[in-house]
Amino acid sequence: MEKPKQSDAVARKPSRWLVLLIIVAPPLLWAGNFIIGRAIRDWVPPVTLTLARWSIALLCILPFALKHLRHDARYYLSHLPLMILLSVSGVMAFSLCVYFGLHYTSGTNGLLLNSCIPALIMLLGRLFYGQMLQMRQLAGMLVSFVGVLAIIFKGEPAGLLALSFSVGDLLLLAAMSSFACYSLWLRKVPAEINRTGLLAVQILITVIATFPLWIIEHTAAAAAVWNGFTLAAVVFLGIFPSLIAYLFFSRCVDMFGPARAGLIIHLIPVFGVLLSMLFLSESLHLYQVAGITAILAGIGFASVKRGITR
Protein backbone atom coordinates (compact mmCIF):
# COMPACT_ATOMS: atom_id res chain seq x y z
CA MET A 1 0.00 0.00 0.00
CA GLU A 2 2.94 2.35 0.63
CA LYS A 3 4.38 2.21 -2.87
CA PRO A 4 1.35 3.68 -4.68
CA LYS A 5 1.23 6.52 -2.17
CA GLN A 6 4.91 7.27 -2.73
CA SER A 7 4.39 7.19 -6.49
CA ASP A 8 1.45 9.56 -6.19
CA ALA A 9 3.56 11.94 -4.11
CA VAL A 10 6.34 11.86 -6.67
CA ALA A 11 3.84 12.48 -9.47
CA ARG A 12 2.46 15.49 -7.65
CA LYS A 13 5.90 16.97 -6.95
CA PRO A 14 6.57 19.87 -9.37
CA SER A 15 9.47 19.53 -11.75
CA ARG A 16 12.63 21.58 -11.32
CA TRP A 17 11.75 23.60 -14.42
CA LEU A 18 8.33 24.45 -13.00
CA VAL A 19 9.86 25.45 -9.68
CA LEU A 20 12.35 27.63 -11.55
CA LEU A 21 9.50 29.26 -13.48
CA ILE A 22 7.55 29.87 -10.26
CA ILE A 23 10.62 31.56 -8.76
CA VAL A 24 11.72 33.63 -11.78
CA ALA A 25 8.40 34.75 -13.28
CA PRO A 26 7.16 37.07 -10.47
CA PRO A 27 10.31 39.25 -10.20
CA LEU A 28 10.70 39.42 -13.97
CA LEU A 29 7.10 40.50 -14.51
CA TRP A 30 7.12 42.90 -11.54
CA ALA A 31 10.27 44.50 -12.92
CA GLY A 32 8.30 45.08 -16.12
CA ASN A 33 5.56 46.69 -14.02
CA PHE A 34 8.01 49.33 -12.78
CA ILE A 35 9.40 49.99 -16.24
CA ILE A 36 5.97 50.39 -17.84
CA GLY A 37 4.59 52.38 -14.93
CA ARG A 38 7.46 54.83 -15.26
CA ALA A 39 7.21 54.94 -19.06
CA ILE A 40 3.50 55.89 -19.18
CA ARG A 41 3.37 58.08 -16.06
CA ASP A 42 2.75 61.24 -18.12
CA TRP A 43 -0.15 59.71 -20.07
CA VAL A 44 -2.03 57.63 -17.49
CA PRO A 45 -2.60 59.01 -13.94
CA PRO A 46 -1.79 56.64 -11.04
CA VAL A 47 -5.33 55.83 -9.87
CA THR A 48 -6.56 55.42 -13.45
CA LEU A 49 -3.67 53.06 -14.15
CA THR A 50 -4.38 51.06 -11.00
CA LEU A 51 -8.11 50.76 -11.75
CA ALA A 52 -7.58 49.92 -15.44
CA ARG A 53 -4.88 47.37 -14.68
CA TRP A 54 -6.89 45.46 -12.11
CA SER A 55 -10.16 45.73 -14.05
CA ILE A 56 -8.47 43.97 -16.96
CA ALA A 57 -7.05 41.40 -14.57
CA LEU A 58 -10.53 40.80 -13.14
CA LEU A 59 -12.06 40.24 -16.57
CA CYS A 60 -9.29 37.79 -17.44
CA ILE A 61 -9.44 35.76 -14.24
CA LEU A 62 -13.21 35.52 -13.74
CA PRO A 63 -13.84 32.72 -16.30
CA PHE A 64 -11.29 30.55 -14.50
CA ALA A 65 -12.26 31.59 -10.98
CA LEU A 66 -16.08 31.39 -11.03
CA LYS A 67 -16.33 27.76 -9.95
CA HIS A 68 -13.82 28.36 -7.17
CA LEU A 69 -15.66 31.50 -6.06
CA ARG A 70 -18.89 29.52 -5.70
CA HIS A 71 -17.18 26.63 -3.95
CA ASP A 72 -15.16 28.74 -1.50
CA ALA A 73 -17.71 31.51 -0.85
CA ARG A 74 -18.18 30.42 2.77
CA TYR A 75 -14.42 30.70 3.37
CA TYR A 76 -14.27 34.22 1.96
CA LEU A 77 -17.11 35.33 4.25
CA SER A 78 -15.63 33.68 7.33
CA HIS A 79 -12.23 35.26 6.59
CA LEU A 80 -13.53 38.58 5.24
CA PRO A 81 -11.19 40.82 7.33
CA LEU A 82 -8.20 38.85 6.04
CA MET A 83 -9.49 39.11 2.46
CA ILE A 84 -9.72 42.89 2.82
CA LEU A 85 -6.27 43.15 4.40
CA LEU A 86 -4.70 41.13 1.59
CA SER A 87 -6.45 43.19 -1.08
CA VAL A 88 -5.63 46.58 0.41
CA SER A 89 -2.00 45.79 1.33
CA GLY A 90 -0.68 43.64 -1.48
CA VAL A 91 -2.80 44.88 -4.39
CA MET A 92 -4.40 48.30 -3.97
CA ALA A 93 -1.96 50.17 -1.69
CA PHE A 94 1.08 48.60 -3.29
CA SER A 95 -0.02 49.58 -6.81
CA LEU A 96 -1.05 53.11 -5.86
CA CYS A 97 2.14 53.84 -3.90
CA VAL A 98 4.30 52.50 -6.72
CA TYR A 99 2.57 54.49 -9.48
CA PHE A 100 2.48 57.70 -7.45
CA GLY A 101 6.08 57.19 -6.40
CA LEU A 102 7.28 56.72 -9.97
CA HIS A 103 6.14 60.28 -10.70
CA TYR A 104 8.80 61.59 -8.32
CA THR A 105 11.71 59.18 -8.55
CA SER A 106 13.42 56.98 -11.13
CA GLY A 107 12.34 53.50 -12.13
CA THR A 108 15.80 52.29 -11.11
CA ASN A 109 15.36 53.57 -7.55
CA GLY A 110 11.99 51.86 -7.34
CA LEU A 111 13.48 48.59 -8.49
CA LEU A 112 16.38 48.79 -6.06
CA LEU A 113 14.16 49.64 -3.09
CA ASN A 114 12.27 46.39 -3.75
CA SER A 115 15.20 44.57 -2.25
CA CYS A 116 14.31 45.76 1.24
CA ILE A 117 11.11 43.65 1.18
CA PRO A 118 12.73 40.45 2.56
CA ALA A 119 14.26 42.40 5.45
CA LEU A 120 10.88 44.00 6.13
CA ILE A 121 9.22 40.57 6.10
CA MET A 122 11.69 39.32 8.72
CA LEU A 123 11.35 42.46 10.84
CA LEU A 124 7.53 42.56 10.76
CA GLY A 125 7.39 38.81 11.33
CA ARG A 126 9.45 39.28 14.50
CA LEU A 127 7.53 42.32 15.76
CA PHE A 128 3.97 41.10 15.17
CA TYR A 129 4.13 37.30 14.84
CA GLY A 130 6.92 36.36 17.24
CA GLN A 131 9.09 34.77 14.57
CA MET A 132 12.54 34.23 16.02
CA LEU A 133 15.46 36.29 14.73
CA GLN A 134 19.10 35.46 15.33
CA MET A 135 21.84 38.03 15.81
CA ARG A 136 22.98 37.24 12.28
CA GLN A 137 19.58 38.27 10.96
CA LEU A 138 19.54 41.49 12.98
CA ALA A 139 22.98 42.41 11.71
CA GLY A 140 21.93 41.60 8.15
CA MET A 141 18.82 43.78 8.42
CA LEU A 142 20.95 46.65 9.73
CA VAL A 143 23.28 46.38 6.74
CA SER A 144 20.27 46.25 4.40
CA PHE A 145 18.78 49.32 6.07
CA VAL A 146 22.02 51.22 5.45
CA GLY A 147 21.69 50.26 1.78
CA VAL A 148 18.11 51.55 1.67
CA LEU A 149 19.25 54.86 3.20
CA ALA A 150 22.05 55.11 0.62
CA ILE A 151 19.50 54.88 -2.19
CA ILE A 152 16.92 57.20 -0.63
CA PHE A 153 19.46 59.92 0.20
CA LYS A 154 21.44 59.37 -3.02
CA GLY A 155 24.66 58.61 -1.17
CA GLU A 156 24.75 62.05 0.49
CA PRO A 157 25.14 61.93 4.31
CA ALA A 158 24.06 65.58 4.39
CA GLY A 159 20.67 64.49 3.05
CA LEU A 160 20.18 62.20 6.05
CA LEU A 161 21.27 64.88 8.52
CA ALA A 162 19.02 67.49 6.89
CA LEU A 163 16.20 64.96 6.32
CA SER A 164 16.31 65.81 2.63
CA PHE A 165 14.58 62.97 0.82
CA SER A 166 12.50 62.24 -2.24
CA VAL A 167 8.75 61.91 -1.79
CA GLY A 168 8.83 59.27 -4.50
CA ASP A 169 11.36 57.16 -2.60
CA LEU A 170 9.23 57.31 0.55
CA LEU A 171 6.12 56.30 -1.38
CA LEU A 172 8.00 53.36 -2.85
CA LEU A 173 9.27 52.39 0.59
CA ALA A 174 5.66 52.49 1.82
CA ALA A 175 4.72 50.20 -1.07
CA MET A 176 7.44 47.73 -0.08
CA SER A 177 6.25 47.76 3.56
CA SER A 178 2.71 47.11 2.35
CA PHE A 179 3.82 44.14 0.27
CA ALA A 180 5.83 42.73 3.19
CA CYS A 181 2.61 42.73 5.25
CA TYR A 182 0.82 41.04 2.35
CA SER A 183 3.44 38.28 2.23
CA LEU A 184 3.04 37.56 5.93
CA TRP A 185 -0.77 37.65 5.86
CA LEU A 186 -0.87 35.39 2.80
CA ARG A 187 0.35 32.51 4.96
CA LYS A 188 -2.75 32.88 7.16
CA VAL A 189 -5.06 31.90 4.28
CA PRO A 190 -6.36 28.33 4.83
CA ALA A 191 -4.83 25.81 2.44
CA GLU A 192 -8.26 24.64 1.28
CA ILE A 193 -9.01 28.01 -0.35
CA ASN A 194 -8.20 27.85 -4.05
CA ARG A 195 -5.52 30.40 -4.97
CA THR A 196 -7.11 31.40 -8.27
CA GLY A 197 -10.38 32.20 -6.54
CA LEU A 198 -8.48 33.97 -3.76
CA LEU A 199 -6.73 36.25 -6.25
CA ALA A 200 -10.05 36.98 -7.97
CA VAL A 201 -11.54 38.08 -4.62
CA GLN A 202 -8.52 40.31 -3.92
CA ILE A 203 -8.80 41.91 -7.36
CA LEU A 204 -12.56 42.43 -7.00
CA ILE A 205 -12.12 44.16 -3.63
CA THR A 206 -9.34 46.29 -5.11
CA VAL A 207 -11.46 47.41 -8.07
CA ILE A 208 -14.39 48.30 -5.79
CA ALA A 209 -12.17 50.20 -3.33
CA THR A 210 -10.24 52.03 -6.07
CA PHE A 211 -13.30 53.24 -7.98
CA PRO A 212 -14.18 56.14 -5.61
CA LEU A 213 -10.55 57.29 -5.75
CA TRP A 214 -10.71 57.20 -9.54
CA ILE A 215 -13.78 59.47 -9.51
CA ILE A 216 -11.84 61.99 -7.41
CA GLU A 217 -8.81 61.80 -9.68
CA HIS A 218 -10.91 62.00 -12.83
CA THR A 219 -12.58 65.20 -11.70
CA ALA A 220 -9.44 66.83 -10.27
CA ALA A 221 -6.63 65.71 -12.58
CA ALA A 222 -5.92 65.50 -16.29
CA ALA A 223 -7.60 62.64 -18.13
CA ALA A 224 -5.61 59.69 -19.40
CA VAL A 225 -4.26 59.76 -22.94
CA TRP A 226 -5.28 56.53 -24.62
CA ASN A 227 -3.45 55.37 -27.72
CA GLY A 228 -2.00 52.14 -29.03
CA PHE A 229 1.02 52.32 -26.73
CA THR A 230 -0.82 53.11 -23.48
CA LEU A 231 -3.57 50.57 -24.20
CA ALA A 232 -1.01 47.83 -24.90
CA ALA A 233 0.89 48.79 -21.75
CA VAL A 234 -2.20 48.58 -19.52
CA VAL A 235 -3.28 45.25 -21.06
CA PHE A 236 0.20 43.87 -20.37
CA LEU A 237 0.04 45.10 -16.77
CA GLY A 238 -3.43 43.62 -16.33
CA ILE A 239 -2.40 40.14 -17.44
CA PHE A 240 1.25 39.50 -16.59
CA PRO A 241 2.34 41.43 -13.46
CA SER A 242 -1.20 41.25 -12.09
CA LEU A 243 -2.39 37.69 -12.71
CA ILE A 244 0.55 35.47 -13.55
CA ALA A 245 3.04 37.04 -11.15
CA TYR A 246 0.63 37.05 -8.17
CA LEU A 247 -0.48 33.46 -8.77
CA PHE A 248 3.10 32.28 -8.99
CA PHE A 249 4.14 34.26 -5.92
CA SER A 250 1.23 32.81 -3.94
CA ARG A 251 2.40 29.35 -4.96
CA CYS A 252 5.95 30.29 -3.99
CA VAL A 253 4.79 31.36 -0.50
CA ASP A 254 2.95 28.04 -0.13
CA MET A 255 6.07 26.11 -1.13
CA PHE A 256 8.78 27.99 0.75
CA GLY A 257 7.12 30.24 3.35
CA PRO A 258 6.91 34.06 3.27
CA ALA A 259 10.50 34.78 4.33
CA ARG A 260 12.15 32.48 1.79
CA ALA A 261 9.66 33.42 -0.92
CA GLY A 262 10.45 37.06 -0.23
CA LEU A 263 14.03 36.45 -1.30
CA ILE A 264 12.97 36.21 -4.95
CA ILE A 265 12.36 39.97 -4.73
CA HIS A 266 16.13 40.34 -5.10
CA LEU A 267 15.79 39.31 -8.73
CA ILE A 268 13.65 42.37 -9.49
CA PRO A 269 16.60 44.81 -9.56
CA VAL A 270 18.65 42.39 -11.63
CA PHE A 271 15.97 42.29 -14.33
CA GLY A 272 14.68 45.80 -13.83
CA VAL A 273 17.87 47.85 -13.86
CA LEU A 274 18.84 46.27 -17.16
CA LEU A 275 15.37 47.01 -18.56
CA SER A 276 15.56 50.59 -17.27
CA MET A 277 18.86 51.15 -19.00
CA LEU A 278 17.59 49.58 -22.21
CA PHE A 279 14.10 51.12 -22.46
CA LEU A 280 14.13 54.22 -20.23
CA SER A 281 17.71 55.36 -20.90
CA GLU A 282 18.31 55.65 -17.16
CA SER A 283 21.86 55.64 -15.81
CA LEU A 284 23.14 53.46 -13.00
CA HIS A 285 24.83 55.60 -10.32
CA LEU A 286 27.50 54.62 -7.84
CA TYR A 287 25.27 55.25 -4.80
CA GLN A 288 22.68 52.88 -6.29
CA VAL A 289 25.30 50.17 -6.80
CA ALA A 290 26.52 50.68 -3.21
CA GLY A 291 22.96 50.61 -1.87
CA ILE A 292 21.87 47.45 -3.67
CA THR A 293 25.15 45.75 -2.72
CA ALA A 294 24.53 46.53 0.95
CA ILE A 295 20.91 45.35 0.74
CA LEU A 296 21.85 42.07 -0.94
CA ALA A 297 24.82 41.51 1.39
CA GLY A 298 22.63 42.10 4.43
CA ILE A 299 19.91 39.73 3.26
CA GLY A 300 22.46 37.11 2.26
CA PHE A 301 24.13 37.37 5.66
CA ALA A 302 20.78 37.09 7.44
CA SER A 303 19.61 34.13 5.35
CA VAL A 304 22.43 31.63 5.61
CA LYS A 305 21.91 28.26 7.24
CA ARG A 306 19.00 28.49 9.72
CA GLY A 307 18.73 32.27 9.51
CA ILE A 308 15.27 32.32 7.96
CA THR A 309 12.36 30.44 9.38
CA ARG A 310 8.96 29.76 7.98
UniProtKB/TrEMBL annotation:
Subcellular location per UniProt equals: Cell membrane
Q: Which GO terms describe its cellular component?
A: plasma membrane
Record's bilayer topology term: Multi-pass membrane protein
Give the chief site where it resides: membrane
Keywords, A to Z, come to: Cell membrane, Membrane, Transmembrane, Transmembrane helix
Q: Where are the transmembrane segments?
A: 17-37, 43-66, 78-102, 108-129, 138-155, 161-185, 197-216, 228-249, 261-280, 286-304
Record-linked Pfam families:
EamA
Q: Which residues form the EamA domain?
A: 19-152, 168-302
Similarity comment text for this entry? Belongs to the drug/metabolite transporter (DMT) superfamily. 10 TMS drug/metabolite exporter (DME) (TC 2.A.7.3) family.
Kindly provide the name given to this protein in its UniProt entry.
Threonine/homoserine exporter RhtA
Its taxonomic placement starts with: Bacteria, Pseudomonadati, Pseudomonadota, Gammaproteobacteria, Enterobacterales
